[in-house]
Amino acid sequence: MKKIAAIVRNHVSPNASMDVQDVINQSRFVSRVLREQGWSVVEVELGTDIGEVVSTLRGIRPYVVFNLVESFMGSDELASMAPVIFRNLGLSYTGAESPVLFMTNDKLAAKRHMLSVALPTPFGLDEIGLKRGRFNRPGRYIIKSRYEHASLGLDETSVVYAEKAEDLLAAMDDQRSRLGGFCIAEEFIAGREFSVSLLESPNGECLILGSAEIAFRADMPVKIVGYEAKWEEGSDADKSTVRGFGFRKAEPELSRLLEKTAFDCWEEMGLSGYARVDFRVDDKGSVYIIDVNANPCLSEDAGFIATAIEVGWKSEAVISAIVKSALGRYAN
User: Fold this and answer.
1) Which of 247, 148, 119 is nearest to 195 (CA)?
2) DSSP string, 178-214
């Protein structure tokens, strides 16, 4: 008799934006791989009725839950509810634990924790901090959503110059609605952008899967990976931000520094299962963590899988390893 894997994902409305719809692609990909590996797969949608999901999972009694919940009730912040449900049902599940998801889905909370353990990250604060007089110094800042992900609302107008706190407060007022209502201002690191993908082994060790660079078109006025670049394939922004891997051989010291810092981030933030850490590197070679992605996107063309394939993994092996890490974690 086949073992059952339940793929749990968030509800997607018919008119959902591309970043929300992407979870369906992830679910189809993971489902196909697990079926090919001999699993009986049941896909479960987490809507607004938690009781319905609990009842469904109790009925299925899956051997493992593959957690693809990226939001709950339309909020990325509430995605951390999903592991709470699985844990209370006594189920093994993939990816990060609830407290870690809760912290990493709040960019300001994640930043404060990173600073407390000496992980390098740009200075940042929210509206309350600004009103309390914590403005750091004049310079360029990026205004971004505090709780939403997938580069929601980001474009070149997200980077502003601020002489004083009032400038940032005004920029937040202008951009708040497209950023999901809550935003932070982070010192903008004008430099190169990288990511490091990490994977948990069945015995709980953190493995460095690989790293990638987003190369920006030289004449881009503001070099960032905005929403259009990430989700509108073939757009000018997409063509201006190209993923590459050549720096790993050409710049081994930088590669080692990024991967060492990503490993430290995994340990200090309590990451598990799989994760991706995003960086900016300034012209002096200093690295800064700009985002910690617990349970990053697993679409076949997304950065995590692309990085794995670049270093010789098959995408099917990545999915299998994520499941094995979950089963290994809850076997003890």
Assistant:
1) 247
2) GGTS-EEEEE---SEEEEEEEEE-TTS-EEEEEEEEE
CA dist 311 and 308 (Å) reads 5
The residue written with tokens 């018919």 in the block is 14
Question: Any alpha helices (H) in the chain, and if so which ranges?
Answer: 18-36, 50-60, 81-88, 98-104, 107-116, 127-131, 165-175, 227-231, 236-239, 247-250, 252-269, 303-310, 315-331
Give dist(CA 111, CA 120) in Å, integer: 9
Phi, psi angles (nearest 5°) of residue 26: -60, -45
CB 187 within 8 A of CB 123: yes
- Calpha distance 6→30 (Å, rounded): 11
CA distance 186 to 136: 10
DSSP code of residue 222:
S
Alpha carbon distance 257, 312 (integer Å): 22
Q: Is the pTM of this model over 0.85?
A: yes
Q: List, in sequence order, every residue forming a beta bridge with 162; answer none if it has no partner.
A: 139
137's tokens? 């110094």
- pLDDT digit string (tens) for 205-221? 999 999 999 999 999 98
Q: What Rg do the C-alpha atoms of the chain give, in angstroms?
A: 20
Pull the structure tokens for residue 147: 């709780």
What is the strand order of the sheet 64-68 is part of? 40-46, 4-10, 64-68
SS3 77: helix
Q: How wide is the angle at C-alpha 216 spanned by C-alphas 188 and 258, nearest 5°?
A: 65
Query: How do residues 90-140 score in pLDDT, each as one tens digit?
Result: 999 999 999 999 999 999 999 999 999 999 999 999 999 999 999 999 999
